[in-house]
Write a structure and sequence with these properties.
Order of helices and strands: HEEEEEEHEEEEE
Structural class: mainly beta
Helix content: 10-25%
Strand order of the largest sheet: 1-4-5-7-8-9-10-11
Number of strands: 11
Distance between the termini: 75 Å
Number of helices: 2
Largest sheet: 8 strands, antiparallel, barrel
C-alpha cells in the first residue's frame, strides 16, 4: 500500500529545496541617520562672530576679530574622526578704541606684525560627561602652541550647521604680555573667547 503521508512529505521537501527562500526587504534608513561619511563645512566669508573680553584697571573690556576662517569635518556617528581648523587674522582685532587697538596689536602683547595669524587645530572631537561636545586640539598664539579642549555647541540643520561656545585662556601662557604687561595688576591674565559661526556644507 502506498504510504501517501510519506510521499507528500517527500514532495514538499523537494519543492522547498528547489525554491530559494525569499529575501527580506532592506529596511530603509531612518531620516537623518548617518551614513558613516563625514561632512565637510566651511565658513562663508564675512559671517560669524569671534569676540574676546578681559579685565583692565578693574573694568571689563570687549573686542572682536573681524577676519577669521573656519573649516569643520564632522560625522555624528564617529565624532573622534572629525577635525576643526580656525585661522584668525590677529590684525583684524577691534575694541572700538584706536589707542587700545594699537596697544593690543603692539610688540608687548599680540605683536601682529610678527605673528599675523593665530590658529586652532583639532584632529578629533569627544563627548564630555555632561554630554557636551568638545574639540581636542591645540591653539597657536604669538608663536606658542598649547593644548586646548574647546567646548562646542553644534547644531546641524539642512545644508549647514552652526558652531558656538566659549572658552577661557590665560594670555601669559602664550607670551601675550611682555615688559610691564607681564604683571596682572593692570590687565587680568584670563581672556574669555566667545564664538558663534554659521557654516555651509561643501561636500
Amino acid at each position: 500500500m502506498t504510504n501517501y503521508p510519506a510521499l507528500l512529505a517527500a514532495v514538499a521537501a523537494l519543492f522547498t529545496a528547489a525554491c530559494p527562500a525569499a529575501e527580506t526587504p532592506a529596511k530603509p534608513a531612518a531620516p537623518g541617520a548617518t551614513t558613516g561619511r563625514a561632512a565637510h563645512y566651511t565658513q562663508a566669508p564675512g559671517t560669524g562672530s569671534l569676540t574676546f573680553s578681559f579685565t583692565q584697571a578693574g573694568a571689563e573690556n570687549h573686542g572682536s576679530f573681524r577676519q577669521f576662517a573656519t573649516d569643520l569635518t564632522y560625522d555624528p556617528g564617529n565624532p573622534a574622526a572629525g577635525s576643526l581648523k580656525v585661522t584668525v587674522q590677529t590684525g583684524s582685532l577691534d575694541t572700538r578704541d584706536k589707542d587700545r587697538n594699537d596697544l593690543l596689536a603692539g610688540a608687548d602683547l599680540l605683536d601682529v606684525a610678527k605673528y599675523p595669524t593665530a590658529q586652532y587645530v583639532a584632529s578629533s572631537f569627544a563627548k564630555r560627561a555632561d554630554g557636551q561636545l568638545e574639540a581636542v586640539g591645540k591653539l597657536t598664539l604669538r608663536g606658542v602652541t598649547k593644548d586646548l579642549r574647546l567646548p562646542l555647541n553644534l547644531r546641524i540643520a539642512g545644508n549647514g550647521c552652526e558652531l558656538s561656545g566659549e572658552v577661557t585662556v590665560k594670555r601669559l601662557d602664550f607670551g601675550v604680555g611682555q615688559g610691564e604687561w607681564q604683571s596682572t595688576e593692570g590687565a587680568g591674565n584670563e581672556v574669555k573667547l566667545q564664538y558663534k559661526v554659521p557654516l555651509v556644507r561643501s561636500k
